[in-house]
Specification:
Keywords: Endoplasmic reticulum, Glycoprotein, Hydrolase, Membrane, Metal-binding, Metalloprotease, Protease, Transmembrane, Transmembrane helix, Zinc
Protein name: FXNA-like protease
Number of domains: 3
Largest sheet: 10 strands, mixed
Number of helices: 21
InterPro entries: ERMP1-like_C (IPR053973), ERMP1_1-A_TM (IPR053974), Fxna-like_M28_dom (IPR048024), M28_fam (IPR045175), Peptidase_M28 (IPR007484)
GO cellular component, one term: endoplasmic reticulum membrane
Helix content: 40-55%
Radius of gyration: 32 Å
GO biological process, one term: proteolysis
């Protein structure tokens, strides 16, 4: 055996020397490795030099003193004066005096001032304070309202005979404890100043404009429903603009449009002064990923009218907190929104399309390009573009392969094609790694209870998710080029093949997304256009065949697409990161952020990242990125990675100091206790509070009682709270919670109906301005009918007990009388048939909290914003 080995040694040595020569040959074709850091830093510099300045670009604020020199323009200082008064009113919870009386009086007073300033020879102004009562099914609950308030203005030209109205909407109510100066006070005052500018304009407009200041959006969406289903002007509204704020300041994003009225987007493109929009935002929002909704849904579904949904999205950290104040709303943001809204109102109020708004069953593809201009085309046009550009991309790749075979004496077209297919397969692996490695990082950090480390320090995202995505995208081809070099085709050609592979993947992805009906495929279109354009230039100019001379053309055009994709996904991170701090305990927020970063790298650096293989020692470069990721991980698990900061990046906690009483079928009380009910807002629950002064001894999961009591025996507020109730917490309290009022549920008796198997149970409910009913049939019984909206009973596949009824009122506190028809096949209505819980919420700060509850809330650390109020839960069995 030794003799045989000796004979093979020369062969092995020759093979090793041959491979070594090949590697040295390949390395000589590449650029020196020390240029690589500069190459990577170039893209980082472009991000901060181009993307960030354009993203945060805002117009200068127009002052009152400048108005005479610039007539007809939106005056931000005037809007800020409105906002200052609005802010000083304080929190404006539906049902509170501040909301139903003080804010309504403020709005009416300012509108009357505008009436006095209005050009009476040109315009008519009608003012109406509506107080609607109604109900509808919202997600998983029946949403009922009674005597809430809307302040509505109709401004019309005396010369116009049009019966087609344009509707503008914003809401003046706020969340408990929040002044709501951002959400939605900013848009309230924008509307007020737009009303003033339209009323003093010397140029009349064609269509009347309805300004809806609705007083119950947070409840949710009750004010808009009351208007669109009951008001005398509603049926004449043919288009609308809904104005929202998802934070405090920034630019206003158009994130929903239509449905099926692309002319709205045509006007937006022509008239919006500061365009900021994307189809992708519309598709993400309508998918339900974000835990929020807007009045757009109500106008679309119940009014059957089309419109635009526009919202400021910056600084979502203060959204629905005590820090959503006048001081946190930049004047330049108000100017930006005002410029856009005023221009759009002028355009739509003169649009001939408003006379006939018949749907054409098509959607629009739309996006702004770095805020510089706006692109819009129909969905059908998008399908044609995708197919044409996709086919042209494949043709260009085919031409490139043919050119390579002509220029390479040792490789035929078939051999080049086979090598390209290998590279394509490896690039697909890289694509999967680009997405999966950031997701793996998200899973690991969540497993270590270190989610949301980037919540305050967003720069951590580079090391935690962006660099792993780059490594995953490039690694398969880097290993292939370095471990299996091929001197029969130049390295420059092989590098082009790797870029061609990304082009083919983009073309295939565009066709797949088009087939799925997703309009966000325009991202693939942008990628194909800019690389396909570079490839065409290189083929025509013969730079394609001259070493790496093709690379500058590719990089130059990639700067454009890189800037757009970074701009787009940075916007989504600005939206999502604060949202994930209130997205609940049951989902890992890092998965969403990791996915966004991975997809961003795929689109923004899909071509450019492959150029890492243009340098010598690319494995060393990737190793450097890996080391940098490790360093960022160490920073993230240190105190630097603690997510929350007082006042600016707060942790959220919902805490209801609750009294519970459980009545049995015979009327006896089986349990009576008090405690604190916690609706956890983020993934970490109360883990960050373990070392605080807050005493959480005895904290237990609500899930412990879910099998014993309807709705787990807790006073969950909205459908979203109740949906994920098993993840919430309950902390018992020894002393009884002192409530600021009474909740009464009177049982008026039951009557067996003619069939004999159905009995009608009648009740009367009275209490605070926010109440719930939870309805759970007992045993084989089922709900046959009730006096509420029937939709939940008519669709049993979608809605299952326990049923939630949410009831709120403004100034009309008349008791709620209702009935529930229960069906039992054995007609045994003298035995337990219905489990019913009545819940009262004293949400407004106009109600006093007891001393112990105040002390408990005050013990929360300063980085926690607590939304709290007293509540009562009464469970009955009938």
């Amino acid at each position: 055996m030794e003799e045989k080995t000796d004979k093979e040694n020369p062969i092995d040595t020759e093979l090793v020397e041959t491979l070594s020569l090949r590697k040295r040959y390949v390395r000589r074709q590449r650029l020196s490795w020390y240029y690589a850091p500069s190459f990577l830093l170039l893209w980082l510099a472009l991000f901060y030099a181009i993307v960030i300045p354009l993203y945060y670009r805002l117009p200068d604020r127009l002052t009152i003193s400048e108005e005479s020199h610039r007539p007809g323009e939106f005056v931000a200082e005037q809007a800020q004066r409105y906002l200052h008064t609005y802010d000083r009113i304080g929190p404006k919870v539906t049902g509170s005096y501040a909301n139903e009386v003080t804010t309504v009086e403020f709005l009416v007073k300012e509108i009357e001032k505008i009436r006095a300033e209005m050009r009476g020879d040109l315009y008519d102004l009608e003012l109406d304070v509506q107080s609607p009562t109604g109900g509808y099914v919202f997600n998983d609950m029946v949403n009922m309202y009674q005597g809430i308030h809307n302040v509505i203005v109709k401004l019309s030209s005396k010369s116009s005979q049009s019966e087609s109205y344009l509707l503008l909407n914003s809401h003046f109510d706020s969340k408990p404890g929040s002044p709501g100066s951002g959400d939605d006070g900013t848009m309230v005052v924008v509307m007020m100043e737009v009303l003033r500018q339209m009323a003093i304009s010397p140029i009349p407009f064609e269509h009347p404009i309805v300004f809806l200041f609705n007083g119950a959006e947070e409840n949710p969406l009750q004010g808009s429903h009351g208007f669109i289903t009951q008001h005398k002007w509603a049926e004449k509204c043919k288009a609308f603009i809904n104005l929202e704020v998802g934070g405090s300041g920034g630019r206003d994003l158009l994130f929903q449009s239509g449905p099926n009225n692309p002319w709205l987007m045509k006007y937006y493109r022509q008239h919006a002064r500061h365009p900021f929009a994307t189809t992708m935002a519309e598709e993400i929002f309508q998918s339900g990923v974000l835990p929020s909704d807007s009045d757009f849904r109500i106008f679309r579904d119940y009014g059957n009218i089309a419109g635009l949904d526009i919202a400021q999205i910056e600084n979502g950290y203060v959204y629905h907190t005590a820090f959503d104040t006048f001081e946190n709303v930049p004047g330049r943001s108000i100017q930006n929104s005002g410029n856009n809204v005023l221009a759009l109102v002028r355009a739509y109020s003169n649009a001939s399309e408003l006379y006939s708004t018949e749907s054409d069953d098509s959607h629009a593809v739309f996006f702004d390009f770095l805020g510089l201009f706006f692109v819009y085309y129909t969905e059908t046009t998008g399908i044609v573009l995708n197919c044409v550009v996709g086919v042209l991309s494949l043709v260009l790749v085919g031409c490139s392969l043919w050119r390579m075979s002509r220029q390479s004496e040792k490789m035929s077209l078939v051999q080049i094609s086979i090598r390209f297919l290998i590279i394509l397969g490896l690039h697909l692996v890289g694509f999967l790694l680009c997405i999966c490695l950031p997701l793996l990082m998200a899973v690991l950090f969540d497993a270590g209870d270190r989610s949301l480390t980037y919540f305050t320090n967003k720069w951590l995202l580079f090391g935690l998710y962006v660099f792993p995505a780059i490594i995953g995208l490039v690694l398969p081809l880097t290993l292939y080029f370095t471990l299996l070099p091929n001197e029969r085709v130049s390295h420059a050609y092989q590098l082009q093949l790797s870029l061609h592979a990304h082009l083919v993947v983009q073309a295939l992805l565009a066709l797949i997304l088009t087939a799925m009906g997703l309009r966000s495929q325009y991202l693939c279109l942008i990628s194909m256009i800019f690389y396909g354009g570079a490839l065409l230039i290189n083929l025509v100019s013969t730079l394609h065949d001259r070493g790496y001379y093709w690379a500058p053309i590719v990089m130059f055009l990639q700067v454009v697409s890189f800037s757009y994709f970074c701009y787009l996904f940075y916007m989504f991170l600005v939206i999502f990161i604060p949202v994930l701090g209130r997205n609940g305990y049951n989902t890992n927020p890092d998965l969403i952020v990791g996915l966004l970063c991975g997809v961003c790298v795929f689109f923004a650096l899909g071509f450019a990242a492959q150029l890492i293989n243009m340098f010598r020692w690319p494995k060393l470069i990737l190793l450097g990125l890996g080391v940098t990721t490790f360093i960022f991980c160490m920073i993230a698990v240190s105190e630097m990675g603690f997510p929350y900061r007082a006042k600016t990046n707060v942790m959220r906690a919902n805490c209801l100091h609750t009294r519970r009483i459980f009545y049995e079928h015979d009327g006896s009380v089986s349990r009576s206790d008090s405690g604190y009910y916690f609706n956890y807002q983020d993934r970490r629950a109360f883990a960050p509070l373990q070392d605080s002064a807050l005493n959480l001894t005895g904290l237990e999961p609500v899930a412990n009682n879910c099998d014993d009591y309807v709705m787990c025996g807790i006073p969950c507020f909205y459908y979203s709270w109740c949906k994920w109730r098993q993840w919430d917490g309950w902390l018992p309290r020894e002393s009884e919670v002192i409530l600021p009022g009474e909740l009464t549920l009177d049982f008026l008796g039951y009557t067996v109906l003619e069939s004999g198997t159905v009995a009608r149970y009648q009740f009367e409910l009275a209490g605070p301005a926010h109440m719930n009913l939870f309805i759970q049939p007992v045993g084989s019984a089922k709900v046959h009918d009730w006096s509420f909206v029937r939709k939940m009973l008519d669709e049993p596949e979608e809605f299952q007990p326990p049923y939630q009824i949410f009831h709120s009122y403004g100034t009309d506190n008349t008791s709620l009388k209702f009935s529930i028809d229960m069906e039992k096949s054995d007609s045994g209505f003298d035995t337990p048939t219905l489990e019913l819980a009545a819940v009262g919420h004293w949400v407004s700060y106009e109600y006093e909290r007891d001393a112990e509850a105040k002390d408990f809330v005050a013990a929360f650390p300063d980085f926690v914003h607590v939304m709290e109020w007293p509540s009562i839960f009464k469970r009955y069995i009938f």
